[in-house]
Design goal:
The protein is of the alpha/beta class. Helices cover about 20% and strands about 35% of the residues.
Length: about 140
């Protein structure tokens, strides 16, 4: 599927399994952060929407205003952090590299790269929208 040209209707109809959609204040800025820090590929980037690829997985970004008639919008906090309680785990990303890049983009390092007892080296990086991104790799 060509994510740059697919219609919204065809894309929506193609989705299967579990989906992830993040509401953000600034879609292009979030795409730039995800690409620069984690190497994620953003497709169909507009002020309102983007499709983001990570390996074989896809997720979507939507600007807050696109949810004008969605009941979830009323639950968003006015101030950060917004994504409290969710971890977005990127199992094929080097946490040491990601933290170096994240610092250069002004992200908050909640936990620097650490070897964990469950066999992963991981870090916790808080993006501008309040989501905890967790780059991880096997020790």
């Amino acid at each position: 599927m060509d994510y740059e040209t697919v219609s919204a209707q065809a894309f929506g109809a193609s989705l299967r399994g579990i989906g992830l959609n993040l509401l953000v204040r600034d879609v292009p800025a979030q795409c730039q952060f995800l690409g620069a820090v984690f190497g994620l590929l953003a497709r169909r980037v507009s002020d309102d929407f983007a499709i983001v690829e990570y390996g074989d997985a896809l997720f979507q970004l939507h600007r807050d205003g696109t949810y004008h008639s969605n009941p979830l919008l009323g639950l968003l906090p006015e101030g950060p952090p917004r994504g409290a309680g969710i971890e977005l785990r990127l199992y094929d990303s080097d946490p040491d590299v990601a933290c170096t890049r994240a610092k250069a983009h002004g992200a908050v390092i909640l936990q620097p790269p650490t070897d964990k007892p469950h066999g992963l080296r991981e870090a916790y990086i808080l993006c501008e929208n309040g989501y905890a991104w967790v780059p991880s790799r096997p020790i």
